[in-house]
Write a structure and sequence with these properties.
Length: 96
Amino acid sequence: MRNQIIEIGGPEAISPNDVVRIFEEATGRKFEVQNVPEEALQAQRASATDPMQQSFAALMLYYAKGDPIDMSRTTKDFPIRLKSVRDYAKSVTAGR
């Protein structure tokens, strides 16, 4: 998979806001969400001085757009069993 983009997500195509909502339901608490303006993230990416900073800035910019991640291609290339965010949230919040 050298020089390839690998989408990483779960078995469902859900947005970052959906993930927050699922964890709010699992914990019974409301989370404070702070949104960074896309312009600030674009400026951070433009001023990045090395590939790692550029990658993280690009990742944050992509994440800020709130698009769900479709894992169909990734699971075709890597036939692994994925856990849903809802199941993961239940497992890490059980007994709290």
